[in-house]
Design goal:
The chain is an alpha+beta fold. The chain has helices spanning 7-44, 59-76, 79-83, 104-115; strands at residues 86-93, 101-102, 118-132, 138-151, 154-169, 172-186.
Length: 207
């Protein structure tokens, strides 16, 4: 009986095991390398920006924006946007000899009556000056304006100046006082014998 030799088979199996072991080691090495690279990229990436790091507009720019929003809403008759710029306890002094208007409810009622008489309202603001109190809670602004539009069906125009007092409530600036003066107002002359016209709104930026 011939003895069997297992030499070649053991060699083949040994080579296969060596190849599998080498493949396994390489796989681990590659996986570790990829993981390390991912971790490095993650560590190198800048941290997400915190909301507190976002630079907000300076208060003077915010106030100028509030004035622009107020005049824009006034021109188009957007009561909701107008209210967003005006405090509920607003006080308003008009260009006529009349008691001041106190509170948003009174102001909005007078504004809507005035706005119903206006068409094609246009307001141009110039020479705006803004000052903020040292405590940073109050500010005042003044500007000149030119108004033009159709009042009661007739063209009308006027120029004047406005002084606003604003208060910072939370992070929002609101208009708490409005004093507007008409310097000049022009309306077309009615023909002789015609019924007298209603006067144009005395205060383009408030009732």
């Amino acid at each position: 009986m011939k003895s069997q030799s297992f030499g070649p088979s053991i060699v083949v199996v040994g080579r296969r095991l060596s190849l599998w072991a080498l493949f396994f080691v390489l796989s681990l090495t590659l996986a570790t390398s990829v993981s390390a690279q991912k971790k490095k990229k993650k560590d190198d990436a800048p941290p997400p920006q915190d909301s507190s790091q976002i630079v907000s507009l300076p208060d003077q720019a915010k106030i100028d924006n509030v004035i622009g929003q107020m005049l824009g809403a006034w021109q188009v008759g957007d009561l909701e946007k107008l209210h967003a710029t005006i405090a509920d306890d607003i006080s308003v002094v008009s260009g006529t000899y009349a008691p001041p208007v106190i509170g948003w409810a009174s102001y909005s009622a007078a504004y809507q009556m005035q706005r119903a008489r206006l068409q094609q309202a246009r307001m141009e603001r110039t020479n705006t000056l803004i000052r903020i109190a040292p405590d940073g809670l109050f500010a005042w602004a003044c500007y000149q304006f030119e108004f033009s539009g159709v009042v009661d069906g007739s063209p009308s125009s006027s120029v004047g100046q406005t002084t606003l007092v604003l208060e910072k409530r939370g992070d929002t600036w609101l208009i708490v006082h409005n004093h507007t003066s008409i310097v000049q107002s022009t309306t077309p002359t009615a023909p002789a014998g015609a019924a007298p016209q209603q006067p144009a709104p005395s205060n383009p930026s408030n009732p």
